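ping. complex inputs:
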Amino acid sequence: MSDARVKFVLDEPEIPTHWVNLMADLPGDAPPPLHPGTKQPAGPEDLSPIFPMALILQEVSTEPEIEIPEPVWEAYRLWRPTPLYRALRLERELDTPARIYYKYEGGSPPGSHKPNTAVAQAYENAAAGTRKLTTETGAGQWGSALAFACRLFGLECEVWMVGSSYDQKPYRRSMMESWGAVVHRSPSDVTEAGRSQREHTTGSLGIAISEAVEVAARNPDTNYSLGSVLNHVLLHQTVIGQEALAQMAMAGEEPDTVIACVGGGSNFGGLTLPFLRRVMREGAGTRFIAAEPAACPTLTRGVYAYDFGDTVGLTPLMPMYTLGHNFVPPPVHAGGLRYHGDSPLVCGLVKQGLVEPRAYRQNETFEAAVRFARAEGIIPAPEPAHAIRAVIEEAEVARESGEARVILFGLCGHGHFDLSAYDAYLAGKLPDPEFSEGELSAALASLPEAPALA
Amino acid sequence: MSDARVKFVLDEPEIPTHWVNLMADLPGDAPPPLHPGTKQPAGPEDLSPIFPMALILQEVSTEPEIEIPEPVWEAYRLWRPTPLYRALRLERELDTPARIYYKYEGGSPPGSHKPNTAVAQAYENAAAGTRKLTTETGAGQWGSALAFACRLFGLECEVWMVGSSYDQKPYRRSMMESWGAVVHRSPSDVTEAGRSQREHTTGSLGIAISEAVEVAARNPDTNYSLGSVLNHVLLHQTVIGQEALAQMAMAGEEPDTVIACVGGGSNFGGLTLPFLRRVMREGAGTRFIAAEPAACPTLTRGVYAYDFGDTVGLTPLMPMYTLGHNFVPPPVHAGGLRYHGDSPLVCGLVKQGLVEPRAYRQNETFEAAVRFARAEGIIPAPEPAHAIRAVIEEAEVARESGEARVILFGLCGHGHFDLSAYDAYLAGKLPDPEFSEGELSAALASLPEAPALA
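pong. complex structure:
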């Protein structure tokens, strides 16, 4: 195996200088977000109470590329470019003719891809004179990233952490505090939204978003920052896919299949959008697989409709696959994937058939994660373990058919703060929670009234 | 700041192909290890019950360079070469004219420099037909590295983890188990050594070594693996310093001062030995600073004498600075530095005045660590926080004197498993334990009878 390389590294000057905006390449107009009160298309002014104008303009931009501001590029240098690996040892373990590559984002200080957008958002807010950013966090990856980014750009940071994750991952809280952030368990007593959802003791991303948005909306010097879902967040993450394109070229390979996990869509979009643009422009035959948890099966069981981004109904209505904004998923460890909706951009691609969604149970994803860790060394976070599960399935198909397919997947974070879940899995005590069909039906029945989507 | 680079990366083919053996360059003969019973120089055959011959030959080699076996080099590719960073943001925060660089080893799967030797030891044992390796671990860095390495080379792994660290860092245990190792809390009930030390409930590295050596010595198919102290361990770690030499050259810089923390000496030796060889051969004016905990001040308060490497007295007598093999340091979080002795090679360099030791208290090291984390992002392990404390001191001296000194230090691991200590520090509740002068005197009074050292 020594003649094959396992690591493809770029040099600092090769960090991308632009973000890729797939909106420019999409056929037709995307359905717009709607104002939650009037149900009319939401304009930039509707978002200005909680976002700086520079990010709003990115959100609605139709330019194909947007230049990365120099202070953001300089912050990227702290951990970018990130490595692309060939998983030679996993291939051998799976006895597959498939060649498996992964783009690893876990080497950033917060341990995931999240700072790619956190530093961009913190910079634009600092430039606009914002004093504090509020946000929600599930597993803690996003809250850590924003705490880190706020420290780099001199902003205060206040985080609402989903209750179940707050209890499972105390060291994620310590990490955020080490960078100077204030962290609340959600639902909290410090917001009206939190007090109204007290009965949901394990919390959800939707509830935590309501809390953070409420505080940002009522304080003029405070803005809100979202770690996924929105166009500008996926835009910032396209540095991942652009680097991966260059690194796959270094490896002399063309991926047949690109796989990533999906929660709100930022990791999935960050890796795949630059590849998808190439497919749209050049007609390459690449397949795209979005892996999600069976406990929160937005893309595989949700309906394509307008819905609120949060539980309480403070955000614009967004066109997306949704399980209903009242849906509270069971407390799986992949906290970053416990979201009732999904990026409208990614949902549109699923709707068009360009992206194939798959759902996996918690225990089968941990089985895949341990298999990966024992072959490749890196212990994955529970979120990308969903992607690894899909990779193993594809590698097994390749073995059956004898095809030397090229698979690329996103390893968006390490699992250093998830070892209690590994502990439970190895002891045979990891639960495999299912959502209640009755609760899903009830949540889907309470979608807001809005125009139907084609 | 955008014109200065912050990251210096090497490509996969630039991973060193040889280890640097400073023994070849030392003037005169180093005092030999002594058999614990006869007090005569210990030969290869005295070590063969617990080490494979290939490692014993490395231990006593006087060749200036030793080729890295191909399977070890291939394993290195999973995380090497490691990056060298310029700490531009820390320099700005310290308002110093000093230029500060750090070699970061925390990106390896176990999160420290330890796998550099773990994979080499696992490979040589696997090649010699060993079935299982036993070892001790303090903070868990070494145990994790050996668990990872054993998995790569198909060996079983059994780890005795120092009691205080076992209690402070449960996720380090989970990490070792994720890679398939068996982990005991030391002192344990499964060895005679452990049962004899039951009253030392927090444990120590010396006790844990006794336990692991005992099991290896009584089982023919089982060997012991040590994560520091010995010549062959420091030898394997010289990949760090060799890469750093190349990267400092990329940066166009010559370090005036090289700083690393010292527990058993493997991190310190790994970074500094290639630089020290250059000093010896070319007479460069580089200073070397070894940072250790005031709670376990081997180099600053120990005596230079023959002593056992472990508490019970199973190992050869080694010529080193020692606090006495019975000394049990207070349970500081820098578990990797809680060792009564130190590498004979590093001790010899201190004795010759080539290396300057300094000791720091726990709270001042965490203050330095938080300052570093808030400037540079990476949250350091408590061990390299000692080096960071020394770096900040040196940077402040440079500020006072207006000298643009170049400082290089070793950031040998991240602190993802040490966040409970950060939590305590940020809450103002981190203890600052001191050792008992009476216990130190008693330990020094019980050194074994042996020839005096010059």
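The two ends of chain B are 51 Å apart (CA to CA).
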